[in-house]
UniProtKB/TrEMBL annotation, chain A:
This is PQQ-binding-like beta-propeller repeat protein. The chain crosses the membrane at residues 41-62. It comes from Actinomadura rudentiformis. InterPro entries: WD40/YVTN_repeat-like_dom_sf. Keywords: Membrane, Transmembrane, Transmembrane helix.
UniProtKB/TrEMBL annotation, chain B:
It comes from Actinomadura rudentiformis. Residues 13-75 form the RNA polymerase sigma-70 region domain. This is SigE family RNA polymerase sigma factor. PANTHER family: ECF RNA POLYMERASE SIGMA FACTOR SIGM (PTHR43133:SF50), RNA POLYMERASE ECF-TYPE SIGMA FACTO (PTHR43133). Belongs to the sigma-70 factor family. ECF subfamily. One of its GO terms (molecular function) is DNA binding.
Length: 387, 160
């Protein structure tokens, strides 16, 4: 056995991998099992009815061919090499496309399609690139200890949108910090060591704290903010509680839940549609399904779900420019749906087997990057440019 | 039945947590995975217990949960390489610290192959069975993982 093998073996055998055995874990496991048993019992009572319903639904799905997309008129696709070879985030504006690369941020001039500015080196811990009210922000995570969540903090940097010069660095306390642009507002979010998440609204001009919002639950593993409804005074959030994920509207003043929906299977790509609809995708063994939820009531819209039966998950759902984009890398397909009705509008080819696929866009343009190539699609078909 | 399960799980919990921690590299994720695996075990406790290998069942479940967790692809990812790598904790030898950092850069399946081979001392055939793949795949995954570790460690040394 080589020294290297010995070293690896010694590292894996190190006592630092040991964790304190908290018996609360067993309580959690028992509670989870009780919930499943209750569901099974209820399921048994309703079994016959459910089986009949499922048979009818299955028959309907098999018989009803998926509505054909409107024949697309020509859509121009421009491909550019990704500066630096890797794109982790894309931000599209009227005249520029910003790319968070592996070690730099780039500004590509949309007219000349050339790199117009390059930032100073950023670390691989730079995770989010967002633009709010013309100001570009990037968050960069620092990890200072082995208990990463507990000891992590981040900096939020303001960048000059033309030159990509770094401005102020604003510390964001807490772990797992991320930054999001939501409905024209800038938010950071982070978690304390007890699993309590805090959303912090910041002034997009200088990063000053404008207010905070705390979900009423312990969202241990993750919490995200998807939308702000200023008129209703609510925020749409997603929270991974220990007993399952919920999507909910929270009162912006009190933080209390106005309406909530448990998502048993966990969402992939909770994304905002239009006309008060939110969409999310659940990934099953044999297919994915897109669900439609009314934000005001947090109820699934009857018959509003899109049955997207595909044998090869995972697919990813993104909301861009009022459209829902279902990315199916294994099929090499990109499908565009109407953000209000879920109607399928068009489908396009995309690179097969692309991994993580950052996207950006507006009503007339959809941009995605994979495999070292940025593809800018623009046109006037039924999906792009509002159809 | 639950009392019997609780007695067993209470004793095996530290080992299971450590195993999950090795596979995930994240203590919080390890706790989540172990709790989910124990929930599933409890649901099938009478069957699992009858086969006299509850621990094997839980470990296989933990492994599957770690490798098949697609949700993480769009959830948080703690980065492997902080901008300025922190100094190793005082009590930890620097080379071991570097190896831990290198392990954190591996994808779940490659990391799992190394954990099963170097920590669990499993043969290639056993690893292939646990991961549901061929022995050839295990060999190639192990080879790729070791190459990555070596490259990462060399890079770290050069940086210093």
């Amino acid at each position: 056995m080589s020294d290297f093998d010995e070293r690896l073996r010694a590292t894996l055998a190190d006592e630092r991998w040991a964790l304190p055995a908290d018996l609360a874990l067993l309580d959690g496991a028992e509670a989870g099992a009780r919930r499943v048993r209750r569901r099974r019992a209820a399921g048994a009572v309703l079994g016959t009815l459910a089986a009949a319903t499922a048979a009818v639904l299955a028959f309907t799905l098999v018989r009803a061919p998926e509505r054909e997309p409107r024949p697309p008129r020509p859509v121009t696709s421009i491909t550019l090499p990704v500066p630096g070879g890797v794109a982790r985030e894309l931000v599209l504006t009227r005249d520029s496309l910003y790319v968070l690369g592996k070690s730099h941020i780039y500004r590509i001039d949309r007219a000349t399609r050339r790199v117009a500015a390059t930032s100073r080196k950023v670390s691989v811990a730079a995770l989010d690139l967002v633009m709010v009210e013309g100001t570009l922000w990037v968050s960069e995570r620092q990890i200072t200890g082995k208990r990463a969540r507990k000891d992590t903090f981040s900096f939020l940097h303001r960048l000059d949108a033309r030159t990509l010069q770094f401005g102020e660095a604003i510390p964001v306390p807490g772990g797992m910090a991320r930054t999001t642009a939501v409905a024209g507002t800038l938010w950071s979010r982070s978690v304390d060591r007890f699993g309590r998440w805090t959303f912090t609204q910041r002034d997009p001009r200088d990063g000053r704290v404008l207010g905070t919002l705390r979900p009423p639950w312990n969202c241990g593993s993750n919490a995200e903010i998807a939308d702000i409804d200023r008129k209703a005074g609510t925020a749409l959030i997603s929270c991974w509680k220990p007993d399952g994920q919920v999507i909910a509207t929270l009162d912006l003043t009190t933080g209390g839940a106005r309406a909530q929906l448990g998502v048993q299977d966990g969402t992939h790509g909770l994304t905002l549609g239009t006309k008060g609809m939110v969409w999310y995708l659940t990934d099953h063994l044999t297919h994915v399904r897109i669900h439609q939820v009314d934000v005001a009531t947090m109820r699934q819209r009857p018959g509003g779900d899109l049955a997207a039966v595909r044998p090869a998950p995972p697919d990813l759902l993104t909301g861009v420019g009022g459209r829902l984009w279902l990315r199916s890398p294994k099929q090499g397909a990109l499908t565009c749906y109407d953000g209000a009705t879920g109607r399928r509008l068009a489908s396009y080819a995309m690179p097969r087997n692309a991994g993580s696929l950052p996207v950006a866009g507006d009503e007339g343009t959809f941009v995605h990057a994979s495999g070292g190539t940025i593809t800018i699609m623009s046109g006037t078909d039924g999906c792009l440019a509002g159809g | 039945m639950d009392a019997e399960f609780r007695d067993w799980a209470g004793v095996r919990l530290p080992a299971l947590l450590r195993y999950a921690h090795l596979l995930t590299g994240d203590p919080h994720r390890a706790e989540d995975v172990v709790q989910t695996a124990l929930t599933r075990t409890l649901l099938g406790w009478s069957r699992v217990h009858r086969k006299d290998d509850p621990e094997g069942y839980v470990r296989r479940t933990i492994l599957r949960l770690v490798i098949n967790d697609r949700r993480r692809s769009w959830r948080e990812h703690l980065t492997a390489s902080p901008p300025e790598p922190p100094p190793p904790p005082l009590a930890e030898p620097e080379e071991r610290w570097a190896m831990r950092a290198a392990l954190a850069t591996l994808p779940p399946r490659q990391r799992a192959v190394l954990v099963l081979r170097y920590y669990e001392d499993m043969s290639e055939a056993q690893i292939a069975e646990a991961l549901g793949c061929s022995q050839g795949t295990v060999k190639s995954q192990a080879s790729k993982a070791l190459a990555k570790l070596r490259a990462h460690l060399n890079e770290t040394e050069v940086t210093k």
